[in-house]
Amino acid sequence: MTATAQAGLTWRARLLRRPSPGQVVTVVLLLVLGGLWVYPFAWLVSASLKSSPEIFGSGLALLPERPVWENYARAWNEVGFATYFVNTLVITVGTVLLVVVRSALAGYVLGRYDFVGKKLLIGVFLVTFFLPEGYTIIPITQLTDQLSLLNTHAGVILGLGAGGQIASTLLYAGYFRRLPKELEETARLDGAGHFTIFFRVMLPLAWPITATVVILTFLFAWNVYLLPLVFTLSEPGLRTLAVGMTVFVGERGTDWSGMAAAAVISLIPVIAVFVVLQRKFVDSIAGAVKQ
């Protein structure tokens, strides 16, 4: 009997084998939990295709009586979400690039070099990690204003990406610490300098960590509310999607269907980034658990 035939028989035996009661219960529980997890997003998509009265009159029903696609056109064109989308994209991409470069460089130094005060520095990092955002918003605003970057894209990017970024830095430090030193020694023998070793040897090897940092930073920068709100108070044209959601709340009521459509629009890039980078993200988390 050939190997192909044996493999076919093995798969047939697995298909014909009855699952145990424990497996059935596990599958059912996972399906229920998955449904509960997905339902809010499904309801949001459904609400974006309903009128405001239908949202509250249809209860938990997901299928709209008549899809109202005009909600998306109204959110994108009339409310100005096209501008908010571009602002958010520029700010998020800039923040991700700044955080990746800064965190990777700092993590490389912490992970590969020993120096006086290293443990104290890490301790200070960990302490600042638990500070709420509200405690730092005032000094960040003052520093940005002194740099004449308030009410600009660059100011928001600097405010979001120039902080401690403790979690990202420690992720890179832990990964770089595990890499063999022979990699750097071989590169130095070939005449490579510090920056060449970092950008052409070490950083490419840390791609799983980079994917994780990109996803986490993208989610943070895309959804952050407080700092963009403070930085764009006098420039409504620089609002991000999160801040722009307040446009749907007026003195005479709230445009719930338009807000739902805008929320769906804002979620599309987040889902796309996670789908593209999910494998590397899972690999990095699995590696962290093994360590």
UniProtKB/TrEMBL annotation:
<feature type="transmembrane region" description="Helical">
    <location>
        <begin position="24"/>
        <end position="45"/>
    </location>
</feature>
<feature type="transmembrane region" description="Helical">
    <location>
        <begin position="84"/>
        <end position="108"/>
    </location>
</feature>
<dbReference type="GO" id="GO:0005886">
    <property type="term" value="C:plasma membrane"/>
</dbReference>
<feature type="transmembrane region" description="Helical">
    <location>
        <begin position="120"/>
        <end position="141"/>
    </location>
</feature>
<keyword id="KW-1133">Transmembrane helix</keyword>
<feature type="transmembrane region" description="Helical">
    <location>
        <begin position="153"/>
        <end position="176"/>
    </location>
</feature>
<dbReference type="Pfam" id="PF00528">
    <property type="entry name" value="BPD_transp_1"/>
</dbReference>
<keyword id="KW-1003">Cell membrane</keyword>
<feature type="transmembrane region" description="Helical">
    <location>
        <begin position="256"/>
        <end position="277"/>
    </location>
</feature>
<keyword id="KW-0812">Transmembrane</keyword>
<protein>
    <submittedName>
        <fullName>Carbohydrate ABC transporter permease</fullName>
    </submittedName>
</protein>
<keyword id="KW-0813">Transport</keyword>
<dbReference type="GO" id="GO:0055085">
    <property type="term" value="P:transmembrane transport"/>
</dbReference>
<comment type="similarity">
    <text>Belongs to the binding-protein-dependent transport system permease family.</text>
</comment>
<feature type="domain" description="ABC transmembrane type-1">
    <location>
        <begin position="85"/>
        <end position="277"/>
    </location>
</feature>
<dbReference type="InterPro" id="IPR000515">
    <property type="entry name" value="MetI-like"/>
</dbReference>
<dbReference type="InterPro" id="IPR035906">
    <property type="entry name" value="MetI-like_sf"/>
</dbReference>
<keyword id="KW-0472">Membrane</keyword>
<feature type="transmembrane region" description="Helical">
    <location>
        <begin position="197"/>
        <end position="222"/>
    </location>
</feature>
